[in-house]
Amino acid sequence: MRLLFLGPPGAGKGTQAKRVAANLGIPHIATGDMLRQAVSEGTELGMQARSIMERGDLVPDDLVIAMLVERISRDDASTGFILDGFPRTIAQAEALEVRLRDEGLDGAVVIDVDPEEIVRRISGRRVCANGHVFHIDDAPSERGEICDQCGESVYQRDDDRAETVRNRLDVYRRQTEPLLAFYRERGLAMHVVDGVGSVDSITDAIMARL
Ligand code: AP5
How far is ligand 1, taken at its centre, from the CA of residue 12, in Å? Predict the structure, then answer.
């Protein structure tokens, strides 16, 4: 199954995509995670992406498309995948369409959460270097500042500061939200799910829709 997870920053795409991918036995491919890894490894891509991500802007299409096309060409993605955070622009969606000309997409899960809840979620989010995600109120690490899953330090993402979050929401509205109409026009199955509720209940709702 080839699925997209769409929705604003902080909607819970990563939280849900990991669980649904595990249920379906397909890889969870998150361009934000891949870019953060490139930044932490200091690769050429990471050096180009770093300041752009810190501002909450989008990394140029050509760089992200090349990274994504390489990733979905690997063996583990041959029977399906979940894309989380890609596409984010019409140009990225068109490039994906060309790459998947033969296979196509099976659907998009759209996680719907209102802006106030998004700000609360992002400002309370904490992560570790291995990509485990917490929330200071709703889902704190049992070991406080240490990740209770891998022992790494838990910290706030650079782009989760209040001033950057506003820009990310604005970028989402201008550049990414138009993808909903793009895919509706193409007749892609759009599974809109209410993103407010317990993490388990939202996973159940997505699985039922799929
Ligand atoms: P990316 O990492 O993709 O960020 P994003 O889309 O802004 O998404 P987030 O990771 O912020 O949120 P999420 O929806 O995954 O929510 P999460 O599950 O963590 O991208 C970062 C940057 O990389 C971009 O700004 C851009 O610069 C660059 N980039 C990436 N892809 C790109 C592309 N294709 N093109 C160009 N540039 C690109 O949940 C959020 C919080 O809420 C967590 O604390 C979680 O614990 C909590 N939470 C989750 N579910 C619930 C629930 N049901 N109830 C209460 N709390 C919940």
Answer: 7
Q: What pTM does this model have?
A: 0.95
Q: What is the mean pLDDT of the chain?
A: 96
Question: Residue 204 has which token pair?
Answer: 């159940």
Strand partners, 193: 111
The band of 82, judged by pLDDT with boundaries at 50, 70 and 90, is: very high
94 within 8 A of 185, measured Cβ to Cβ? no
Q: Is 8 in the pocket of ligand 1 (CB under 6 A)?
A: no
Q: What single string gives the DSSP state of each residue in the chain?
A: -EEEEE-STTSSHHHHHHHHHHHHT--EEEHHHHHHHHHHHT-HHHHHHHHHHHHT-PPPHHHHHHHHHHHHTSGGGSS-EEEES---SHHHHHHHHHHTTTT---EEEEEE--HHHHHHHHHHEEEETT--EEETTTB--TBTTB-TTT--BEE--GGGSHHHHHHHHHHIIIIITHHHHHHHHTT--EEEEE--S-HHHHHHHHHHH-
Distance 97 CA to ligand 1 centre (A): 23
- Does ligand 1 have an atom closer than 6 angstroms to the CB of 35? yes
CA distance 184 to 67: 26
